[in-house]
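[job 4417] fold queue: 2 targets
>>> target A
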Amino acid sequence: MQFRQAAQSLIQLFFPQTCRGCGSDAVNKDQLLCLSCLQRLPATDFYPNAGNATEKILAGRLPFLNAASHYFYTQQSLIQELMHQFKYKGRQEIGEYFGKR
């Protein structure tokens, strides 16, 4: 067990896991964002509410049973930066992270 911890510490030293939002090293290998960045994400709380704003925007454009946005998307925001990294820089782990959330 001590060998495993030493090996992980050595890997972290040479290949540090950093927050995708702010670049801090206050994350472990399983985290994408630090707690500070997670708190900065603008949550919508739409998912439990039928007839929410996302459903209204999509109504008539395509068939669906329910729709919701987990976060608000605004210009110059952390969400915009993360989506840019996912879409244009091939950061697949960002898509996987938000897909699981």
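>>> target B
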Amino acid sequence: LGEDDKDTVDVTTVGKYTVAPTGNKFIKYKEYDNDNPRIFQSTTIKISDNQITITRDGEYASQLLLESDKRHLCHYSTPAGEMLIGVYTHKMDIDLDENGGKMSVEYTLDFDSCVVSENTFKITISKN
């Protein structure tokens, strides 16, 4: 994609980061509606050795499964209804420990096997 085709969204939020005895890491946070702060979606990100699952609850629930060099079909709710999207993860860099750290994931989304977007998300976790 050219530079003009890239959209960037930066979000800074307070959440909860935990490391389970199994070694799985969990990030939990809420995203509030700009017009009505009483409305929010809860997001849980589960990170294991080679897999990340992002689950959003609320009016438009969704679940993305990200696993390096694999394509998964995931359900995504929108105001127009439920959609099935393909998610192919190209690259995952995870450098997290019990104190936080960083992670970066590159993936594509497709509908009917046609790529519609290339995406990257980066998360930095630090203590307040």
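[job 4417] complete. Note on B: The chain has a mean pLDDT of 89.
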